[in-house]
Amino acid sequence: MGFTDLMTGARVLVTGATGFVGRHILGPLQALGCEVHVISRRPANHDSRGVRYHECDLHNHAGVASLMGAIRPEHLLHLAWDVTPGEYITSLENLRWVQSTLALAHIFVECGGRRIVGAGTAAEYSWHKSPCDEATTPLVPDSLYAGSKLALWHVLDRLSAQGSVGFAWGRVFFMFGPHEAPERLVPVMVDAARRQQSLTLRHPTQVRDYLHAADVGAAFVALLASDVQGAVNLASGEGTDLSALAGLVGEAAGTEVPLELGSTLDDPHPVVVAEVTRLREEVRFTPRFSLRSGLRDTVDWWFRQHGNAGT
Amino acid sequence: MGFTDLMTGARVLVTGATGFVGRHILGPLQALGCEVHVISRRPANHDSRGVRYHECDLHNHAGVASLMGAIRPEHLLHLAWDVTPGEYITSLENLRWVQSTLALAHIFVECGGRRIVGAGTAAEYSWHKSPCDEATTPLVPDSLYAGSKLALWHVLDRLSAQGSVGFAWGRVFFMFGPHEAPERLVPVMVDAARRQQSLTLRHPTQVRDYLHAADVGAAFVALLASDVQGAVNLASGEGTDLSALAGLVGEAAGTEVPLELGSTLDDPHPVVVAEVTRLREEVRFTPRFSLRSGLRDTVDWWFRQHGNAGT
Predict the structure, then answer these.
(1) Which of A294, B55, B192, B261 is the most buried (most CB within 10 A)?
(2) Are A212 and A294 in contact (CB under 8 A)?
(3) Which of A83-87, A138-142, B79-83 shows the lowest mean pLDDT across its residues?
């Protein structure tokens, strides 16, 4: 198919390849036959099977320029960001990541790069109406993190509009999967199931759009390999409420997630679901996991980490 | 009045003070009794009357940090940008200015700064409906320059929303005045009047909102001295079409601007006028110049530059 032809031998530079989504990027890129270059502060891996690791702090712009001049990548898949749980939403580090992303893009374009794919967020959208649609939903970020991502969208979108470079922006909705930070929702549910300790859901009917991180990673690669321009929601297109999510986690764990249910009366954003027509019909991407099979994969991973008899 | 009390002795850091608007900033700041610090690549002036000049390239972030640590300003009025005529709308330098503005803001906040005022643009708005209103007009930048300004708006607006710093953003509409680049609209009209050479107006009925640069500068100072948060249009609130503008330039020049008139049929943005209720009622700013008196001031300046008998 077309993707493979387009990408065989293409030099791709990846940032954030050791992250929650990024760890699912390299396999699909290798499957496309790309020459993959990874920038990382602390490259944990050795070069292997067409993947070359380069040690560089993305905030060191001179270092990035020197590396980019040596690699001269045609494609840039930029996932790196500071997402320290509990901090990243309001951290001043967001300002630094906007700067370093623009420096990276600038250097990439000056070195002859052709296509940039970056990671946006559902939080760029107003959440007052669902589904969130790339073309019509107002862009009203409600945090410094979301405002910083939207800032990059505006600059890179206009940069690509003047023909300097191709550009697509994957807006990620709600993710789960192996290696997620333990304080995040699904790991907390898994832990509640394991320990049979009650979990309080303040908004049990709150509906969100969940996708396994491996599918988000594969969707980023599909987006990079396509010629689709602009924002594309990376999501399932299906809404699931928190009670149902907990039910599926329990099912995968072979037990129940003990819940205490609050009321949804004060939930300002009861439903956040993505419109995924662009992802399905233009990028032609279909997720590998359903929510049920994805949660089973995730719960299995957590149980392997912690031991089934951890209660 | 309240402004003076608030600002007397306040340490204010100004960037872009030698620019088209910036040159009108220092007088009003001095009148408020501020301790004014100017950062400039090439400080043309010596310290005088409460204004201290510091030589520093804003793209040298380490230099900015060192200077900021020494000055520890309470207010930041950031006007500097690359606005090379014919280039700035599409220039990759816009990416650099977003980076340096965020670095400046980050350093300012870390050094205890309290209030940032920055320069936005009417081009952040969709121009499909007028007047452009801060609260309701969609933000749809149509150039890299406008997208870069809007990017800063989103980051700094969210930064201030979390209480880190006060922030206002003056969206500048259409300006004229002494020292404008000769290839810009009003200088070209003045030149056509002086030489009695015909000027072609492709869209003679195109309506824009014009304000003298001295009033824009004074409005920025009023915005800095106020406690108004968020975006504020800096404009007259009145629309004038190009034929009428040329008529007023001719009147001020004591002759006519010879015109050749095109058709407006293909003008995608026939009217761009600002809603100025925030500027008038919240910032409590009233322009000193009418369009007529402002153009007279401007034409007089040009004639002093070039001599009345230049034809």
Answers:
(1) A294
(2) yes
(3) A83-87
